[in-house]
Amino acid sequence: MAARRMTLTGVLxxxxxxxxxxxxxxxxxxxVDPAGLIDELSTAADPDLGLAAFAxxxxxxxxLVGEIMADxxxxxxxxxxxxxxxxxxHHLGAHPQDARVLAAEPLRWSAREILDDLLADIGLPxxxxxxxxxxxxxxxxxxxxADRLRLAxxxxxxxxxxxxxxxxxPVLAVGSVAAELADLADAVMVCALTIARSEVVDQAxxxxxVIALGKCGAQELNYLxxxxxxxxxxxxxETVTTAEATAxxxxxxxxxxxxxxxxSTCGTIWQVDAxxxxxxxxxxxxxxxxxxxxxxxxxxxxxxxxxxxxxxxMAGDPELAExxxxxxxxxxxxxGGRDDFMSEAQAMxxxxxxxxxxxxxxxxxxxxxxxxxxxxxxxQLLQLVHGRVDERLRLRGTLPALHALxxxxxxxxxxxxxxxxxxxxxxxxxxxxxxxxxxxxxxMPSGDDDRRRIARSLGMHEGEELWDAWRRTxxxxxxxxxxxxxxxxxxxxxxxxxxxxxxxxxxxxxxxKALGFADPRSxxxxxxxxxxxxxxxxxxxxxxxxxMLGWFAEGPNPDLGLLSFRQLSExxxxxxxxxxxxxxxxxxxxxxASILSSSRYVIRxxxxxxxxxxxxxxxxxxAVRPREALVExxxxxxxxxxxxxGAVEALRTVRCRELTRLALxxxxxxxxxxxxxxxxxxxxxxxxxxxxxxxAREQDGPVPPIGVVAMGRWGGAELSYGSDADAMFVVPDxxxxxxxxxxxxxxxxLRALLExxxxxxxxxxxxxxxxxxxxGAMVRTLSGFxxxxxxxxxxxxxxxxxxxxxxxxxRRLVEALLAGVDHLRWPADGLRPEQxxxxxxxxxxxxxxxxxxxxxPHRNLKLGPGGLSDVEWTVQLLQMQHAGRMPGLRTPTTxxxxxxxxxAGLVDEPDARALGRAWxxxxxxxxxxxxxxxxxxxxxxxxxxxxxxIAVQLHRDMANASELIEDWERTSRRAxxxxxxxxxxxxx
Length: 988
Hints:
Blueprint: H1 2-14, H2 20-29, H3 34-42, H4 47-60, H5 62-69, H6 72-82, H7 86-94, H8 111-121, H9 132-137, H10 145-164, H11 170-197, E1 206-212, H12 214-217, E2 227-235, H13 242-261, E3 272-273, E4 286-287, H14 289-298, H15 302-308, E5 312-316, H16 318-332, H17 341-354, H18 372-386, H19 398-407, H20 413-437, H21 448-457, H22 463-485, H23 505-515, H24 520-531, H25 536-554, H26 558-572, H27 576-584, H28 586-596, H29 600-608, H30 627-639, H31 644-667, H32 673-697, E6 707-710, H33 712-715, E7 725-731, H34 737-755, E8 765-766, E9 779-781, H35 782-791, H36 795-801, E10 805-809, H37 811-820, H38 822-825, H39 833-850, H40 868-882, H41 894-903, H42 909-933, H43 944-953, H44 962-982
Parallel strand pairs: 2-3, 2-4, 7-8, 7-9
Antiparallel strand pairs: 1-2, 1-5, 6-7, 6-10
């Protein structure tokens, strides 16, 4: 038996199984001939996953499995599905009879066949074959109709995956698969609408049409896309007013959305997204045809017409849906002739790429450079420009439009062929990413197993092969997209008024290269985009460009400066003061050039609040604002909105502006390091203060007072740009359990509002320093805090309280709490020897565990020798030892405490100077690393260009940026010697 097991495990290992011992046990438990099953499973993308799902299916329906084992084709298709998609495998385990859709070779169903099948499933068999008008009025009254629809949708996904995953050429088949998924989405929407009508009183008094947009409109849908839609409502007859019809239409549309998006024990379908409607999420969910016409004729922006390029009737009243399409279609094909169309389209694409988190940039298949969106935008741009007069290009789908562009000479056949191949490949990979767990994602997975599974499903062997194919494809798309998206490039410099820039393109490239531009060709394209045209803005740009190029050349990264200037100018070009200030306020233009060529963080922040660049015109605006003024400004902005989303968006906009103010002042050397930390802490406190009020006003009943204790760098008023908010939450004594529950709910809502994606960087509140850490209650009463600290707290918790201060909310509560723990953080007799030893052990362990392996500790500004941690722990140790007797030492701020220690004679002048200089230099280097790179890091950068940019911002010589490293090494060494003597009590 052992020999047989050894033989079987060997066979399994050779056939692609990874958990061979477990697989052998599972096979041994199944009453089937393992040889044939192993043969099928070995062809699956993930044989182990397929075997597990097969065993689950056998446990639920052994007779069905017997039928499957007798049919090789059925078995092959089933294994292909469950050997790739974990989600569909679980579904079949719960609903084994759905596997019968794989019994015959799956063929593409027509849209009508899918619809009729779903109608029967939700209890409307009498409507099979019904016309769209009749379906638009239908009502599905079965109480479980929504769950039936969810299960039917999942069954069809099994069927479609059953022809997709076993396909010998899935890349070629992806268009057909995507189109059938769109047909399924249409049918689901029709059925969801019938169910929704059963939930709305007086539903018969309103007509509702649904228009598909985006990938669904183009009939190139993913397995789990958001479905972009738009709703049109009209009165059912003359007895119904427009207001009543739109109100009822809103209810039906909302119910339809909920049915499709909700989760139940039968799963979910997909999210319905109506954000592309007029005025976006702030606009009404439904409008009449006349209201739509008025909006699109008077107010719609270029990108909105671009979105309407893919509009088509989807469900509901066909007359309304078709009427909407007739309204917008001629307007769509006029937008390509607008003066600002090209610049706005290009700017929008760059903004999308710029918003991708740095960690996702190389794995973002949809939005990243060289991804699906690059192909789609390039095709749409050419369509909208040339389709004004050539109706042969007026197609919704990306690939049909690409083929038409090539056929009629608007794009080279070679480019079209390669973009077709790339688009199909990337779309297929995107399908595979989503199909595994039926979750919406566009990121290439990082795990080897996940990449290997996708690779095997595409006929490759290993994940590395998939990654190489993806990166190769992305580079090729990016290259072709750049050539198409910014074409033509002829006579770029001939539009410039400056003598030096009226050269041949080659001569201009040579000049730009001499100025220090690494990519002169791209620089020329930016210059052309900024200066081409007869508008007043272009005229001013032609006047500015020679000076701007010179200022960019003085910075560490001229290419970044010019690119960023182009992006900002395209964003602000329609703002009257922007170009006027650049022309007339010479200092503003020069300061802007300096910023754009050296600070990615500021560039990103300006992207959130472009108007903030106006502060450069007046240096007095680049100063730290008092916290009270910040609270007043933020509160006023939030009060203008009754809804939470609007109030938080207004708050985040003010926060972005204030962060940009500090970053601009910091990057230009107008605000010192300590003032930056205090300013960032004030912005943090004001933001949390106002957000706390917004979260509290959502509650129906009274909310007890909540005090927010600022801890760590926030409490010390020493925040850096990438810092979280370390905090604790306290409520008054006497707060009953219901009050504590309400307060806890408010705090949870506060964190969710500030951490959610939106305008500006997310603000994360870390409550890990509270009593009992992450296992402890989020909110405690005052006496609850004091009781814990008195009875259970450790020395490190007392040390953490050294930097505690009022952060937000009820100040009296926080002050009472801090007064109650003063005897712990400022012990009357100082620290006992064992407490000192505990602090030293903790610091040593922290350095050992948190300094990343393979990095040079001496380049670690926070944890390295002489870094921030060394200085702060030394100061805190001395405070805890002596502040009980010397009240002047009681401050949460490191540099204030160090000054007090020096004045008290506890640290001599040279030692205080060494510690203070190290702390200030480390803080400045860390802040400016964030400003330059846009990424938070505790390590000195190794990129020479980043070092040069930091040197510029610190008013050092850019040409000798390496001196920064030498300065830090010298400064940190001196501070480390002081720390050795004072903190560690070692001999120097």
